[in-house]
Design goal:
375 residues; alpha/beta; six-stranded mixed beta sheet; 18 helices
Length: 375
């Protein structure tokens, strides 16, 4: 069993009179984590899943009297995959407001409907947590830094989905192909906004080929045969279902800084490689640098999330193609990093950036010093 860093945080939030909402991609261990939390409590647990049509029917427009009858004397109620429920926010609000003795635990693999429905209805009544694929730090805690470092190339290629990590390389490609199909379709295609599955796949593949590069919606639109507005809307949906996330460009002081640029990264490099059907070793790849950048940015995101840091995250680039891979703003200060796969590679940070943002800290990250960045 690989311990998840979110487990003690969720356990510490119990019995504070608030619902606990755990969101994240499918198949990253949300249900397992809730089972562990519930299993350590000395009371019976009432478990429902939104994947069950009977549960969806039961909770649709349910009255308070009926809800009390359904819950009965249970003090712990778990609703798994709550984003599949109709009017999930109102149902959860009803439980939280009128069943004060009940600890409500909720999971969802899409922030799209669940967040929209719970934002206002549960304001001040919930704790939000996000669970992502396993992290470098969690695996170091599991079996040590040296062993995890020895698996670094494997992690870049196959990623950190729990089933991939547990089953190992021989089964990784098959698992990732199955996961990528499920991630793309099960939640997204149940939404009315997604009417063209083939277009969704084309957009995902285009994004997979552009990690570490600035994404321009009109260029992707030309590639996939759609309009830029549709492309941006689909990327919004992919972001809200935890497939990809965007990094915005930093733009404040320099005249020719990119004003509205963004990069798109995948929450898991294995899913990205499954989309382009490329599990070749790094020695046979032309995209090692891009994979390395995606890996580091998402591992930094996990590190910040699990340690409670909330920096502003950017990349920096000018129209003259001067760039810095990753920038954080925290405590009123900027921190800038460049990523290189090969140790010993020399790099210099653009003078225009250093002059525009005096006092910024800069650092080059490569495999020999990466733990300083993501642990």
């Amino acid at each position: 069993m690989i311990d998840r860093f979110q487990l003690p945080q969720v356990q510490a939030a119990l019995r504070q009179g608030k619902a606990i909402i755990l969101t994240g991609p499918r198949q990253v261990g949300k249900t397992t984590l809730m089972q562990i939390v519930a299993g350590k409590l000395d009371t019976a647990v009432f478990w429902m899943t939104g994947d069950d049509p009977a549960v969806r029917t039961l909770l649709e427009n349910i009255s308070l009297a009926r809800l009390k009858a359904v819950v009965g004397d249970h003090q712990i109620v778990v609703i798994d995959e709550a984003q599949r429920l109709t009017n999930a926010g109102l149902t959860l609000k009803l439980m939280t407001d009128h069943l004060p003795g009940v600890q409500l635990l909720v999971t969802g693999s899409s922030s799209l409907d669940l967040a929209a429905q719970t934002k206002e209805s549960l304001v001040g009544r919930k704790w939000d947590y996000t669970l992502l694929p396993l992290s470098f730090a969690e695996m170091c805690a599991h079996h040590g830094l040296l062993q995890e470092m020895s698996l670094l190339e494997q992690r870049l290629i196959y990623g950190y989905y729990p089933e991939v990590v547990m089953q190992g390389t021989p089964h990784a490609a098959r698992i990732l192909h199955d996961l990528s199909d499920g991630l793309m379709y099960k939640d997204l295609l149940s939404l009315e906004q997604v009417r063209k599955p083939a277009l969704l796949v084309k957009i995902l593949q285009a994004l997979a080929l552009q990690i570490s590069r600035e994404v321009r919606y009109h260029e992707i639109a030309q590639l996939v045969g759609a309009d830029p507005v549709t492309v941006e809307r689909y990327i919004d949906l992919l972001e809200q279902t935890f497939v990809v996330f965007r990094l915005r460009s930093l733009s404040r002081n320099v005249r020719n800084e990119l004003k509205k640029g963004c990069k798109v990264y995948f929450y898991d490099t294995g899913i990205r490689n499954a989309l382009i059907k490329n599990f070749n070793p790094l020695s046979l790849r032309a995209d090692t640098g891009a994979l390395w950048e995606n890996f580091l940015v998402v591992e930094r995101l996990k590190r910040n999330l699990y340690q409670g840091y909330t920096p502003n995250m950017f990349f920096w680039r000018t129209t003259a193609q001067q760039e810095i891979d990753y920038v954080e703003e925290y405590g009123g200060k900027l921190y800038a990093w460049e990523f290189k796969w090969k140790p010993g590679t020399r790099t210099t940070f653009p003078k225009v950036f250093l002059q525009a943002y005096p006092g910024s800290e800069t650092m080059l990250i490569h495999p020999d010093n990466m733990e300083a960045f993501i642990l």
